[in-house]
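[audit] Reproducing an earlier prediction to check determinism. Same input, same settings, fresh worker. If the tokens differ from the archived copy the diff job will pick it up downstream; this log only records the rerun itself.
[audit] input (621 residues):
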Amino acid sequence: MNRTAPVSRHRPLRLPWLALGIAISSFAAAQSAPDPAAAPTNPDLGPAFSTKNAAYVPVLFDEIPGWEDESFEQTYASFSSNCKAMKRRSAWAPICAKLARLPKNDAALRAFMHDEFYAYQMLTPTRGATGKLTGYFEPLIAGSLRSEGAYRYPVYGIPNDMYMVDSRTVAGQSSRWLKPAQGKLVGAEAGTPGARQYKIDLAGTSPNNRDKRYRVRIVGDSVRPYLTRKQIDAGGIDAPVLAWVADPYKLYSMQIQGSGKIQLKDGGLIRLAYAEQNGYPFMPNATRGDQDNMLLAIKARALMEPPTVDVPGATRGAKKSGGSSASDDEVARIVAALSSGGSTTASTSRPKAKAKPRPVAKKAASKRPAQGTPGEAQEEIAVDPSDVDAMIQFLLSAPVADESVYVADAEAAPEPATATSSPRPSSAQSSAQKGAPMDMSEFEGKGGGKGAGQAVGSGKAVPATGIHDPSYVFFRRIGDGPEGPIGALGVPLSAGRSMAVDPRATPLGAPVFIDGQQPGGKGPMRRLVFAQDTGGAIRGSVRGDFFWGFGDKAGKMALQTNQPVKMWLLLPKAVAGSAAASGIKTRSAGGVEALRDCAVPDEEFCVEDDGSILDELLPGG
């Protein structure tokens, strides 16, 4: 260990009873909202606190498994990029300024972390220490600037008719004077120019967990939820079209992962980043297990290829029939496991048995009152197990469009086909106590793709895809380069150092140390990452989605990342003190104290749901 710190901070051998005493007292403190006056006696321990979604137990840095083995020199670039967004916050500004002046060596950076941050082990609301780590990547799919032949599915930018309205502006109100302003509906006085009184018809929907805003549209004199995926596909929308693709399931995969690149037939490249979402949660009411299986199927679809693919100018090059690449093997394993209901744990050998696809469960459509035009009926947005079975079947079995020669029938939607694959059964895995270093260079994008023009055409109806998930993601174009796509924090993601989180439990911008297993059983996966992204499917505490980078190799690693994990949150000392002293309780409607929703409330990253109305949105007078 090379850090510069007082000897008492990192004495390698500490009395067992002392360590046990600290652990027990810290855990007990996290069981309920702590008394701010009851500060830890050890100055290197922050105050314990809890929220609705997690408990935070203070620990010493040298109690974190693998902390002393981390190379902080390798984390400097990611930390510096993180500061481009976080330096705008008062608690982070001096930390980021200090980081910029530091020598870029391990000892200086290690001492910096100890001086500026408290470490907390994250626990679930039921006080469990183990959560789940999955992986995601930036996929590449083929596309066109025009709607022609197979390329008939639009990739949309932010709709022109979608607005955001703060839940605190319309809370408990049946009508409200509102004024459209830069994509938002803001509160206004009666008679204000450009404003009018609207009926608030948002029953059955919820605001976004992160910013507490509804995504809505104006229908006559009413404010209603924005369109679901089914409605968008059925009628098209008023939104810019960024590209056209041939495979709606690969497009869906790119939406769920939040970014991607589209390779054009002439060799041009369009890079897309997450811009907005239609306001519906990913797979509402589905179980955690069903969501996990769907995510695996979604990621596998992004890596699937037709028997022969040769997209001119594509950076992947030609794929031959019956390819045996590592990513193809991993996709085959996932297809077989999900189709047969078996384990999706990575394994090393293949049986000769043929996988049987799940039957597609049918159910009668359930209707509810219209949210669109008069007389419009809509299928329920809740997703049940039969929906999940059907969607997995479509994702894994529907033919993959050969974009170079395939021309889809003008009327028929892609039909699921029987999936055959050669899975690899699970086998016992062993790893050394200290795993091999993780080399992320092969997962990084190279950049420099040929520029592309603007897509032409407007949104239109497309054949039904069988995807019952009501959520829908809209994109924006960004420049191509070796850096990762732009995450929710507003900075480029770094392969191996960025993670998507639930910002209620893990504040965006915070460093997080994770302890899991490397894919393939190569040893422990212990490293410092940064909470720089979010995802609709990433919910709860001790939950992360590890960003592997760009392309098929990164996709293979993302498919293999589905494992238990422990997490330690690092908070600036001023932020931790504020969270524990005044940020853990709110007043509920009945006057009873309740735990807060956000570990670190933030008007941009995690708005606290306290039932109040923003002062700046209230009518004057």
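[audit] rerun output stored. Observation attached for the diff report: The longest strand covers residues 524-534.
[audit] end
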